[in-house]
Amino acid sequence: MDNILFWLGFYLAMLVISTIIGYSKGNVVAGALLGYVLGPIGVVLLLFSKDRRMLPCPDCGCKIHRDSYLCPQCKQKVFKRLK
């Protein structure tokens, strides 16, 4: 019985950790699934995945938020070109 509780707690912890990482990278569903199904391997995969909320500016390459209208560095309008 202790063994079952250990593994249940372990996978619950992996689920919570990977969901938090997925939320910070803009991909909650993939974070929850990877963490629960793959455990620590899923957490490592999420840590090395790219951030879906930040995209490079087409003009200067600066990282900007997906919903931005202007690039903070080069001041070019980027809203229409990112979508």
Describe the structure.
This protein is mainly alpha-helical and 83 residues long. Helix 1 (2-24) runs parallel beside helix 3. Strand 1 and strand 2 (63-65) form a beta hairpin. The protein starts with a helix and ends with a helix. Strands 1-2 form a two-stranded antiparallel ribbon. It is rod-shaped. It contains 4 helices and 2 strands, in the order H-H-H-E-E-H. The model has no long low-confidence stretch (mean pLDDT 81). 57% of the residues lie in helices and 7% in strands.
Question: What is the CA–CA distance across the termini?
Answer: 52 Å
Task: Provide the residue-averaged pLDDT.
Answer: 81
Count of DSSP-assigned helices: 4
Poorly predicted segments: none
Please compute the radius of gyration using only Cα atoms.
Answer: 18 Å
Topology, number of strands: 2
What share of the residues lie within helices? 55-70%
Q: Tell me about the biggest sheet?
A: 2 strands, antiparallel
- Which band does the percent of strand residues land in? 5-15%
What are the key terms here?
about 80 residues, rod-shaped, mainly alpha, two-stranded antiparallel sheet, single chain
Provide a concise account of the structure shown.
By secondary structure, the protein is mostly helical. 57% of the residues lie in helices and 7% in strands.
